[in-house]
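Q: Hi! First time doing this. I have a protein sequence and I read that you can turn it into a structure. Is that right? Here it is:
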Amino acid sequence: MAFCASAGVAADRNFSQYPGFAEYFAANPPAGVAGPADQALARRHAPRFHLPAGHEGPIDFYRDYIAHGYLVTGEGVRIDGPTPADLNRYRDDVRAEFVHVPGTAEPRPVVYAAVERTGLWAPREPGRAGEEFTILTYHLVFRVSGLPAALPWAAAIPLRLVADLDDWHQLDHYTAAFVVLDGSERPVALTLQQHNYLRTYLVGEEVALGGDGRFDIDVAIRSNELYPHVPARTVRRAVRFLDSGARAFMMGYGRRPMMSADDVTDPAGTVDCELAFLPGSDAFYSFHGFLGERRRLPGRDGPPGARYNTLPQLKPLPAQILDGYWRERNDGDWARYQRSRENGSGPDGFARVQAAVFHRNLACLRRHRKGCALE
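A: Yes, that's right. Below is the predicted 3D structure, encoded as structure tokens:
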């Protein structure tokens, strides 16, 4: 579930118009469709997704979602049952709104994959090029997103009077897993989108690979958020936005924010998904308007394209992955976060100071912790 707000944006526009996105994407144009070799790589390392009982599971964005409903353009033109071409024609219309009307056909489970490469801000040794990492991104698409399953009753009861807690907003496609491969194409880290922030886990520290070398990932009840797999029912600490107070709580050094609720995972089985590949310019990623019905309560509007998953300053992949690398009750992580705030280093400041720790711990894990210890 994504709560991306439109603070500072005109009321008829959404998070895609947040200051900084236009400049970032102008300087970093979207990539094309992954080539055959990269598609094979993405298929080889595709995670296994575990669903709770009764969950519909991921769907096909165009076949099961966009084809069932209508698109209203910024000029008020209504298009029933829009095609992919229709949606892409109005991709840049910031006032366009798609309203989904669920059909009765059995959905086809699809995961949308992309492949990128980056240096992850690794320290460079004299005379040696920095290591390049391959980032495999897997986006799941859910018809609706609900509020976290551990929402306190004191909040749930009044909210039920005005909204459907299982259908808080239409479309959830920010639910993404980033599989980080090192130069030998070996998985070394996993980054998961959770609400409006990301969490990164190193293999051998907080996550493990399955026997076939793939990650196992749980889908949370109602909110659809992604977490490392735990076979039993598990409560997962969660917040809406990772501001300073919420981050203190998440890292284990502060009180729970008032407007927060934990997620719950309770895996009942896996789902077999087809991988699909779209260019980064496709409306799935780049739609500026609303890909779901606009609703009265804050946070219930449909989201823009999937690439608007975080603040513009955190859009570079190294920033997303490294900002999410922190461990609960790790004094070093907490001290570095506090220093990054005190130094006024900006939204990506913590990611930059965590880079050295991430790479030192990665090197230690590669040596199976022989002659070293994790920081």
